[in-house]
Structure formats: C-alpha cells, structure tokens
Design goal:
Layout lengths: L1 E10 L2 E11 L4 E5 L6 H9 L5 E9 L2 E2 L5 H6 L2 E4 L11 H7 L11 H7 L1 H5 L10 H13 L5 E5 L7 H16 L3 E5 L3 H7 L2 E6 L2 E7 H5 L2 H8 L3
Parallel strand pairs: 3-8, 3-9, 6-7, 7-8
Antiparallel strand pairs: 1-2, 1-4, 4-5, 9-10
Helix pairs in contact: 7-8
The structure holds adenosine-5'-triphosphate and magnesium ion.
The site of adenosine-5'-triphosphate has 14 residues, from strand 2 and helix 1.
Pfam families: ABC_tran
Family: Belongs to the ABC transporter superfamily.
GO biological process, one term: L-amino acid transport
Length: 234
C-alpha cells in the first residue's frame, strides 16, 4: 500500500536519509526503530510531504500513485494520517474543537466525533477541556484521535508513547491493535522497543539514514545481537 523507494532527504546540504526503502502493506503494523537522530522523523515527514526536509531522490508510492510533488494536504487527503512527535495541539481549542476543526464539512467519513469519543472515553469526559489543560497521556490520545478524523487508511505515528506512564503505553498498544483490526495500516516510530514489538507485525531498523535491518517483530524480540548492535538494548 505504501512503498518508499531509495529516498534521499536533506536539511540544507545535510544528507540525512541515504536511500531508504521500505513498505507497509494494507492492515499491517510496521515499526520503525532506531536510536535518536537516525532519521525516523525525517522519513515520516518526507512521506507526508512536509518541509523541511527536502526529498532530492527516490519516491514514495501510495496505492500505486507517485506522491512526488504533492502538497502535504493533498497527501493527507489521499488517506495518510499523521501523529506528529511531541503531540502538537492548539492550547486554546477544546478537545471537541480539535476533532472538528480539521474535518472538511463536505467530506463524510467513517470517523465522527462520536466514534472518536467511543474509542477514547477519557477524551469524552474531557471534551470541554482545552489543549493546555490536558495531561500528557490525554494529549497523546487526542493527537491520535485527530489523525483519525480524516479517515486515513494508513497512519504514521511518530513516538506516540513518548513520555507516557506504562499504563498509558498499554492503553495505546490496545488502541493500535484495535485500529489494525479495523483494517488500518500503521507505520509506528518507537523508542520503546518492547511496546513496538508487542503491536507490530514487522520492523525496520534505521541507522544514519539507512535501513540496516528488517525482520518480523517476533524474530527481533528474540535476537539479542540485533538489539544490542543497532538499538543499544541489552
Ligand atoms: N529541521 C532540521 N534542520 C536540520 N537538521 C535536522 C532538522 N531536523 C532534524 N535534523 C537532523 O537530522 C538527523 C535526523 O533527525 P530526525 O529528527 O529524523 O531523527 P529521529 O530518528 O527522529 O530522532 P529522535 O529519536 O530523537 O526523534 C539528525 O542528525 C538531526 O539533527
Ligand atoms: Mg524523531
């Protein structure tokens, strides 16, 4: 469904992605692993058509279509959802406003505010709270809920569990599993290796802008050499 082929991305002259090739099939959860600064966010932004970075070589294909040259909003409209790193919200908008502001009135999609509140009961309870009145976990839930409102077929999540307590990480894992059951594909950037492997079907390891390892998630979990070599996990 999503095919990234030989992608090279730059910040100015800094060459950050060095020919990344990966794919995500329909309904598949794929983890993108790698230590800090290896290019995970750069890859996600490149796929979403967000600048910077600038893609200078390679292509992103989505359901057979080459996305090169499309604006970020055009890419999002084709069914790609994005949960940015660091849960960017509007401090003065309420939970409900966050979920409605993005949704073009003319588009009727499967995801409604009511459905989002069913999925995230915690947000339903906080519907009148503003962005700056939410806890870290609630902000993360809202960031995921927002990404769903455009009815994506694939969601790219950039470290959704960052800074969350273990119980919230587990809750998020449950949500990812539910989305997968609903048929969504997910490309999941994670620092939390065990959380990623708990929900992913496959994983790629990125190192200095290159894919250096690809495996089924279940195999990586039992592969201490890879864990130590690429991820610094012992
Ligand atoms: N806006 C920018 N301008 C210049 N260099 C950048 C910019 N954003 C990131 N970089 C550099 O590009 C490289 C990859 O950064 P990126 O944010 O993709 O890493 P990451 O794998 O997402 O790391 P983390 O796990 O810390 O989020 C790093 O060396 C970083 O310093
Ligand atoms: Mg990042």
């Amino acid at each position: 469904m999503l095919e990234v082929e030989g992608l090279h991305s730059f910040y100015g002259e800094a060459h950050v992605l060095n020919g990344v090739t990966l794919h995500v099939a329909k309904g598949e959860v794929v983890a993108l692993l790698g230590r800090n600064g290896m290019g995970k966010t750069t890859l996600i932004r490149s796929v979403m058509g967000l600048a910077p970075p600038r893609v200078r070589e390679g292509r992103v294909r989505w359901q057979g279509e080459d996305l090169s040259g499309l604006a970020a909003f055009e890419i999002a409209r084709r069914g790609l959802g994005y949960v940015p790193q660091g849960r960017r919200l509007f401090p003065s908008l309420t939970v409900t406003e966050h979920l409605t502001v993005l949704k073009p009135a003319s588009v009727s999609t499967g995801w409604t505010v009511a459905k989002a509140f069913e999925f995230f009961p915690r947000l339903a309870e906080r519907r009148q709270h503003r962005g700056n009145q939410l806890s870290g976990g609630e902000r993360q839930m809202l960031a995921v809920a927002r990404a769903l409102m455009t009815d994506p077929a694939l969601v790219l999540m950039d470290e959704p569990s960052e800074g969350l307590a273990p119980v919230m990480v587990q809750h998020l894992e449950g949500i990812i599993a539910q989305l997968r059951e609903a048929g969504l594909g997910i490309l999941l950037v994670e620092q939390n290796l065990y959380s990623a492997l708990a929900v992913a079907d496959r994983a790629y390891v990125l190192e200095t802008g290159r894919v250096v390892h690809e495996a089924r998630a279940a195999d990586i979990a039992e592969d201490p050499a890879t864990l130590t070599r690429y991820l610094g996990v012992h």
